[in-house]
Design brief:
Length: 221
């Protein structure tokens, strides 16, 4: 039915979900890990970068810590990167996006823990001006964003409005309630509630429920 068109259509994606400890919870960053690796592996995108402030070990790609390391690894032919900022998460985020803007090709970026650098001017720019859309004026502007956060309501309305695809991962609890109400998507929320479960991910597009997917393969976790 949906053919999972949203994996390739280029729209920006907000990934959120239930938080807490325990087996039932989590799966946001793992989903993003699968999505960006898959995008490059399948040739939908030419380059993938996972901005990884938490230093998650399961993230695919070549681990780099600096712009210099990124550039060297890129010249050596790598196209999948696990970027782990060392100190100033917001300033490094800006520098990384700026670097990607200068590289050719179609790019996909995971902004993990986005609430911890939501003031980054480049997060704003990535969502408002970059992407595979009418307003991407040059080929180097083709950067798709996957924004991962456990507190989506803390992101500005403007940022959220630029992510028509909203994904909910995991069980439906108070946070989901809060999320779907804040987005004025109560009807879609009801469908998510009926279909979700541990690590399952539900896709909504422009406020409408699309479908719920099974967990991504465990080898990405
Ligand atoms: N698809 C999956 N299959 C198997 N295990 C999974 C899957 N997704 C998540 N897990 C398990 O849950 C753990 C936490 O997942 P993840 O790191 O994606 O959480 P998160 O939602 O990003 O949480 P946080 O808000 O703390 O960043 C993983 O390390 C793994 O053990
Ligand atoms: Mg995470």
């Amino acid at each position: 039915m949906s053919d999972r068109y949203y994996l390739t259509d280029g729209s920006h994606v907000l990934i959120s979900g239930a938080t807490g400890a325990g087996d039932e919870f989590g799966g946001k960053s793992v989903l993003a890990n699968w999505w960006f690796a898959q995008s490059v592996g399948q040739g939908w995108h030419d380059l993938g970068l996972f901005y990884n402030p938490k230093g998650l070990n399961y993230v695919r790609g070549r681990t780099v810590h600096t712009l210099k390391g990124l550039a060297q690894s890129y010249r050596a032919g790598n196209r999948l990167f696990d970027y782990r900022p060392r100190s100033d998460v917001e300033a490094e985020h800006e520098a990384v996006i700026e670097t990607l803007e200068q590289l050719p090709g179609r790019k996909i970026v995971v902004h993990d823990e986005a609430q911890s650098y939501q003031g980054s001017s480049k997060l704003n720019r990535a969502l408002a001006q970059l992407g595979n859309m009418a307003n991407a004026s040059t080929p180097t502007d083709d950067i798709r964003s996957l924004v991962v956060t456990q507190r989506p309501w803390n992101l500005s309305e403007e940022l959220r409005a630029n992510m028509p695809l909203k994904v909910w991962v995991g069980p439906y609890g108070n946070e989901a309630e809060h999320f779907f109400n804040a987005e004025r998507m109560a009807a879609a929320g009801e469908q998510v509630r009926a279909n979700t479960g541990a690590y399952r991910w539900s896709v909504t597009d422009a406020g409408e429920f699309v479908e719920t997917n099974p967990p991504v393969p465990e080898e990405f976790a």
